[in-house]
């Protein structure tokens, strides 16, 4: 049986992991390679690296980071942030990433999803969606530019469109729940998971191991992503997985 | 020496990095004359079956691979590389494969016997069930490996299915036919067990 995946997310800025400060055991908590190895050992099923560099130089550095991580890591990893063209995808995937994640660029130009899927196959193309509940819409609305800009897209319509265009996976972040540590947005996750045929990664709101269980059972997510609770050692991948096992959720 | 076939469809980087970590000598080539020097071949691949066969045929790599195997040398196909070992695939209309292992390649229907839909691609970690003993499984216990695929092998010859994984159907995960091996999952992305599987293949090649 396919297991539910636990995915730590690392923010990388100018080639350095930010927020990775709590790992006293590491020689260098900002080193993406060391942190990746740490999470691999902890039992992470995949990793996501989000490039939050603002500068062109920072993005160039990301390619080196990807190469270094790919050289040492024996689990899959996804790279997102600032991927705007097929050329960007080629650079990152050829450097050794397994998947790229598209967000704003896919909304601005949905053809980009198809271009990537045609070239590399759908399994390489993740579409990341930032969703916020919209009372006037009576549904969730898609936001871009790191959540700063509202779009005309309803989330359900957008994920269907993205999958039709070749997305192989949806990384779904609830802006309402993000950072609150009160749990994933189960209604949103379930609605998206039931409307597409590809795997859905729940993101935003993880505060405890129990939240992961809900995401998989009630939320019907295939994978769940978290950042700070792992980085700040509020829980660990190991703890989450042993809790899930007790509850009968199949994990590796 | 290991030769990795570069025909433009590969995740060559991760496979070659895995071999580097295992400290194995290897080279990457698309030239049959070069690849002939390899004791063991790895055929990686991601993408469409038909495109892959066209590219292999264009460089006469299909001829080379069949000759390599007929000479008793080892071949390991990974992911699409494993599917290419079979007779044909229904991906984008029927396309002929290398026919080194009997069987064909079909798409997951996405609908189970109770008419419920399930996710395609089969993406993530799934547990191997060992069906037959094989030098590839030496020293290993059943464990989880990483799969990403929408098509799977179907064969009536159960003895070639060394290991399988349960999805909606039993997915052939490791196939063996004499000196020809295939892994549907990505050993290079399957943490410790993946590295051990590669190591076992490399030991076979070395011991030849």
Automatic annotation (TrEMBL), chain A:
UniProt KW Transit peptide keyword:
no
Tell me the route in metabolism or biology where this protein functions.
Amino-acid biosynthesis; L-histidine biosynthesis; L-histidine from 5-phospho-alpha-D-ribose 1-diphosphate: step 5/9
Gene responsible for this protein: hisF
Q: What CDD domains does the database record attribute to this sequence?
A: HisF
Organism lineage string: Bacteria, Bacillati, Bacillota, Bacilli, Bacillales
Active-site residues, Swiss-Prot/TrEMBL: 11, 130
Q: How does it assemble?
A: Heterodimer of HisH and HisF.
Keyword tags: Amino-acid biosynthesis, Cytoplasm, Histidine biosynthesis, Lyase
Catalytic reactions of this protein: 5-[(5-phospho-1-deoxy-D-ribulos-1-ylimino)methylamino]-1-(5-phospho-beta-D-ribosyl)imidazole-4-carboxamide + L-glutamine = D-erythro-1-(imidazol-4-yl)glycerol 3-phosphate + 5-amino-1-(5-phospho-beta-D-ribosyl)imidazole-4-carboxamide + L-glutamate + H(+)
**Record's NCBIfam families?**
hisF (TIGR00735)
Q: Name one GO molecular function term.
A: lyase activity
> What is the protein name given in its UniProt record?
Imidazole glycerol phosphate synthase subunit HisF
Q: What does this protein do?
A: IGPS catalyzes the conversion of PRFAR and glutamine to IGP, AICAR and glutamate. The HisF subunit catalyzes the cyclization activity that produces IGP and AICAR from PRFAR using the ammonia provided by the HisH subunit.
GO annotation, biological process: L-histidine biosynthetic process
Does Amino-acid biosynthesis appear among the keywords?
Answer: yes
What InterPro entries is this protein classified in? Aldolase_TIM (IPR013785), His_biosynth (IPR006062), HisF (IPR004651), IGPS_HisA/HisF (IPR050064), RibuloseP-bd_barrel (IPR011060)
Q: Which range is the signal sequence, renumbered to this chain?
A: none
Q: What is its EC number?
A: 4.3.2.10
Gene3D superfamilies reported in the protein's UniProt record:
Aldolase class I
Q: Which family does the record assign?
A: Belongs to the HisA/HisF family.
Q: Which HAMAP family match?
A: HisF
TrEMBL record, chain B:
The record's annotation in InterPro entries points to: Class_I_gatase-like, GATASE, Imidazole-glycPsynth_HisH
The protein's matches in PROSITE patterns, at most eight in alphabetical order, are given as: GATASE_COBBQ, GATASE_TYPE_1
Q: Where in the cell is it found?
A: Cytoplasm
Which keywords has UniProt assigned to this entry? Amino-acid biosynthesis, Cytoplasm, Glutamine amidotransferase, Glycosyltransferase, Histidine biosynthesis, Hydrolase, Lyase, Transferase
Q: Which BP terms in the Gene Ontology apply to this protein?
A: L-histidine biosynthetic process
Catalytic reactions on record: 5-[(5-phospho-1-deoxy-D-ribulos-1-ylimino)methylamino]-1-(5-phospho-beta-D-ribosyl)imidazole-4-carboxamide + L-glutamine = D-erythro-1-(imidazol-4-yl)glycerol 3-phosphate + 5-amino-1-(5-phospho-beta-D-ribosyl)imidazole-4-carboxamide + L-glutamate + H(+); L-glutamine + H2O = L-glutamate + NH4(+)
Q: In which pathway does it act?
A: Amino-acid biosynthesis; L-histidine biosynthesis; L-histidine from 5-phospho-alpha-D-ribose 1-diphosphate: step 5/9
Residue stretches making up the Glutamine amidotransferase domain = 4-200
Task: Give the Enzyme Commission number.
Answer: 4.3.2.10, 3.5.1.2
GO: which molecular function terms? glutaminase activity; imidazoleglycerol-phosphate synthase activity; lyase activity
Instruction: Provide a GO CC annotation, any one.
Output: cytoplasm
Active site (UniProt)? 79 (nucleophile), 186, 188
Q: Show the Pfam families listed in the entry.
A: GATase (PF00117)
Concerning NCBIfam families, the annotation shows: IMP_synth_hisH
Function field: IGPS catalyzes the conversion of PRFAR and glutamine to IGP, AICAR and glutamate. The HisH subunit catalyzes the hydrolysis of glutamine to glutamate and ammonia as part of the synthesis of IGP and AICAR. The resulting ammonia molecule is channeled to the active site of HisF.
Query: What PANTHER family would the database entry show?
Result: IMIDAZOLE GLYCEROL PHOSPHATE SYNTHASE SUBUNIT HISH
Quaternary state and partners of this protein?
Heterodimer of HisH and HisF.
| Name used for this protein in its record | Imidazole glycerol phosphate synthase subunit HisH
Q: Which gene encodes it?
A: hisH
């Amino acid at each position: 049986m396919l297991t539910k995946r636990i995915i730590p997310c690392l923010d990388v800025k100018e080639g350095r992991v930010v927020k990775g400060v709590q790992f006293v055991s590491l020689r260098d908590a900002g080193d993406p390679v060391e942190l990746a190895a740490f999470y691999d050992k902890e039992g992470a099923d995949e990793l996501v690296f989000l490039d939050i560099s603002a500068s062109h130089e920072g993005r160039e550095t990301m390619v080196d980071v990807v190469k270094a991580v790919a050289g040492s890591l024996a689990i899959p990893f996804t790279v997102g942030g600032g991927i705007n063209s097929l050329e960007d995808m080629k650079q990152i995937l050829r450097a050794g990433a397994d998947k790229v994640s598209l967000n704003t660029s896919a909304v601005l130009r949905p053809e980009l999803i198809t271009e990537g899927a045609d070239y590399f196959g759908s399994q390489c193309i993740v579409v990341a969606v930032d969703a916020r509940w919209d009372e006037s819409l009576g549904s969730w609305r898609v936001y871009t530019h790191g959540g700063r800009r509202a779009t005309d897209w309803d989330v359900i319509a957008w994920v269907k469109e993205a999958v039709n265009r070749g997305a192989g996976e949806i990384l779904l972040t609830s802006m309402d729940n993000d950072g609150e540590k009160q749990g994933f947005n189960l209604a949103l996750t379930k609605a998206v998971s039931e409307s597409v045929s590809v795997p859905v990664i729940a993101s935003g709101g993880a505060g405890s191991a129990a939240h992961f269980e809900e995401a998989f059972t009630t939320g019907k997510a295939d994978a769940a992503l978290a950042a700070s609770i792992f980085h700040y050692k509020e829980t660990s991948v190991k703890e989450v997985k042993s809790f899930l096992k007790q509850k009968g959720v199949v994990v590796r | 020496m290991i030769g990795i076939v570069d025909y433009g469809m590969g995740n060559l980087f991760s496979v070659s990095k895995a071999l580097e970590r295992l400290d194995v000598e290897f080279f990457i080539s698309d030239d049959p004359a070069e690849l002939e020097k390899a004791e063991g071949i790895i055929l990686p691949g991601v993408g469409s079956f038909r495109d892959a066969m066209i590219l292999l045929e264009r460089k006469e790599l299909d001829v080379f691979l069949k000759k390599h195997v007929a000479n008793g040398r080892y071949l390991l196909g990974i992911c699409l590389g494993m599917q290419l070992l079979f007779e044909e695939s229904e991906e984008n209309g029927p396309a002929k494969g290398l026919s080194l292992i009997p069987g064909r390649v079909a798409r997951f229907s996405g609908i189970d016997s109770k008419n419920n839909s399930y996710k395609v691609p089969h993406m993530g970690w799934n547990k191997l069930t060992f069906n037959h003993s094989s030098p590839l499984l030496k020293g290993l216990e059943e464990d989880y490996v990483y799969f990403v695929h929408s098509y799977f092998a179907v064969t009536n010859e159960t003895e070639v299915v060394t290991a399988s994984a349960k999805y909606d159907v039993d997915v052939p995960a490791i196939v063996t036919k004499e000196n020809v091996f295939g892994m549907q999952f990505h050993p290079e992305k399957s943490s410790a067990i993946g590295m051990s599987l590669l190591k076992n293949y490399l030991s076979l090649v070395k011991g030849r």
